[in-house]
Each structure stands twice: as C-alpha cells, then as structure tokens.
Write a structure and sequence with these properties.
about 170 residues; alpha/beta; Rossmann fold; four-stranded parallel sheet; 6 helices
Length: about 170
Amino acid sequence: MREHNLTHLDSCRVACEYTGVLKRIIHDMKFRQQQRYANHLRWLVKQHIHIEDFPHIDYILPIPLHAERLQERGYNQAEAIFKDWATEEKMPWMVDVLERTRYTIPQWELNLTERKQNITGAFVIGRPEMVKNKHIIVVDDIITTGITLDECAKVLKKAGAASVHGLVVASGAR
C-alpha cells in the first residue's frame, strides 16, 4: 500500500475503478437510499474477487458507520454489499468487533490533511478477544486515499490482529 503511504494495511484488493456508471451507483446507494444497488455491486465483487486471492482469513468486518450516520442512511452500505458475499465464500462475518465511536465529517468533503485528522481516533475494538492473532479483511464501498481503511487496520493491529487486508468495490485513488 505504498502508493497511498498506508502503514497498517497489509494489502487491499479492488474490484473496479470508481468512474462512470459505477460512480453513480455507489453515490446513489450512499446518499439516495438506493440499497437495491448492493446486489449489483456484490455481483461486481464476485466477478473480480475471490477469497482465495487473500492469505488465510479468520473474519470479514465492514467499516462501521457511526450510529447517527447509520440512522440517517438506514443501513451500512459495506454490510449491504459484502455480507452475502462473505456468506457465499463461507467466511465469518463480524459486525461487533470494530466500532465507530465518533461522528465524522464525510471524508470526500475534506483534503488529505483534514481526512487524517477527521478519522484519527474514530474507531475502537468492541471485542478485543476476537482480534488477537487473527487475520482480518475489512470491507468498504470505495477507497480514495485509504486513510479510513488504514486507521481501522491500525486499531485492529494495536488490539493484536496478525494481519489486516482491505477489500473494496471501487478505487477512486488520489
């Protein structure tokens, strides 16, 4: 993850580039309550990513939303996209291990420096015993700078995770 200057994430797999129709679908899913698009995004992931692409994995975790954001949106888009994929891949899906404890400004509204400040300290481990010596995939809809995924990896590794890998639908890398 050197291209993003990420220091905690061991690797990151991406299904597609964040452009065109895909950009619109992800935007509509996040900001226009179009949860139905999760099926289409899951299909893209299934076409491009397989669990065998990763080293041994113990759990798959979604990037958590803060309770206020979850209430606003009505669902976590990462969970809507990836939960059934994890089940099909016969991988344990865990939602109560990683928690977002602080409401943050949406990352897309901020520059690089502001993004780092915004997300630092926003996550905690809710069940540390589930993390120690485990190999984990953290999933999300999009990666741009990678700061959110890297912050999650930092918190997970501090709690004892052996490795943390990212998996996202799309990359809008900057």
